[in-house]
């Protein structure tokens, strides 16, 4: 049976790992290559890097980080943040990234999803959606959550799938950094509508939150940053809790 | 000295395969190259055919750089150890049914067909870690078992098509995804995996190490 994936996310600014509360007040949490290595040893099923560096010139650091990580971490690596075109995608894939995640650039040019999928395969293209609740629906936000696009998150997710996205990385802006659990309604609606896997993100604070993301949200994978960075839980602790709640995860790395 | 060749024919993901073998080669006296050059392939002691993308574009990529002949010479005649990964395994089939009907290498008889989303809930592609079932105890599997615990072991998959073999005895490993999925094939000096050993953590590295060390599959 296919396992539920646990994906630690490393938010990287100017080559260093940070993680903020609601996208502001960043704290430093170390060297990305070293952190990725530790996550891989401790059972991360994938690792996602999100570049939040503001200025474009400083983004080259990320290519170097991915290259160094890919030399020593033999699990799938996803990179996102500031990827604007096919050339940016290629820069990361050619140094060892397995998937690229696009957000604002996919909104600005939806064809980028199709072009990327045709060139590198659907499995390579993750469309990241930052969604924020608006009475009975959710809107898509871009530019690190600063701009409301006015687009409906559910409709955009369906469109992204039809354009060739291989996965949706769904982040709840309302929940991100709050430690109060995933937005289960949002996750459930989008997981049910789409044929491609949905990665739930934003808000986990307790071990039960992970369970709920699968049981009630229907997510194929669960992404978290803070709880792992600041050592609240290890990936293995999360997995053991999922198993005790009847959710199947990869544990073979614990023996060899 | 071993010469390990990763065949470069314009398919993606060569870097990940390279990285994993490079990690293993650092210890020993092995040379690793990425190539589509006739004489380099001809000298190889091990050949790896990676593959990401559609069946047809991979097959035509192979034809374009005209390495098919030298591969057949090396693999079918000289019996050089060969590993096909993902579409690199699927291309061993007689026929592929992705976006049309296309001829494969026909080294292992069978057809590559789309995974059935039997239950509505089944997401396609089959993406993520899935548990392996060992159907046959080949020499390769015996050697692999010496290196790593195979009980409930998982590997990383990303694919939408499944290899249906004409000869069931060439199916060594399977996994379950609403249906039986061929995870590993083996015939003489040829092995192929649907999963990505280069992305399958400790198990994957043990698998690739076995490929380099095992005298007989």
Report on the architecture of this protein.
The complex is a heterodimer of chains A (256) and B (217). With 256 residues, chain A is α/β, with parallel strands linked by helices. Chain A has one domain: TIM Barrel. Chain A contains 10 helices and 12 strands. In chain A, strands 1-4-5-6-7-10-11-12 form an 8-stranded parallel beta barrel, surrounded by 8 helices. In chain A, helix 1 (32-41) runs parallel beside helix 2 (60-70) and helix 8 crosses helix 10 (235-244). Chain B is of the alpha/beta class. Chain B has one domain (2-213): Rossmann fold (3-Layer(aba) Sandwich). Helix content of chain B is 29%, strand content 30%. Chain B has 7 helices and 14 strands. Chain B has helices spanning 14-25, 38-43, 55-64, 68-77, 87-90, 139-147, 201-213; strands at 2-7, 30-35, 46-49, 82-85, 95-96, 102-103, 110-114, 126-131, 133-134, 154-159, 161-165, 171-176, 180-187, 190-193. In chain B, a hairpin with a 2-residue loop joins strand 13 (180-187) and strand 14. In chain B, helix 6 crosses helix 7. Chain B starts with a strand and ends with a helix.
Brief digest:
The complex is a heterodimer of chains A (about 260) and B (about 220). By secondary structure, chain A is α/β, with parallel strands linked by helices. Chain A has helices spanning about 30-40, 60-70, 85-95, 105-110, 110-120, 155-165, 185-195, 205-215, 225-230, 235-245, and strands at about 5-15, 15-20, 25-30, 45-50, 75-80, 100, 125-135, 135-140, 145-150, 165-170, 200, 220-225.
- The CATH architecture name of chain B reads 3-Layer(aba) Sandwich
The percent range for strand residues of chain B is 25-35%
Unreliable residue stretches of chain B: none
Report the major sheet of chain B.
Answer: 8 strands, mixed
Count the E strands of chain B. Answer: 14
Mean pLDDT over all positions of chain B: 93
Spatial order of the strands in the main sheet of chain A?
1-4-5-6-7-10-11-12
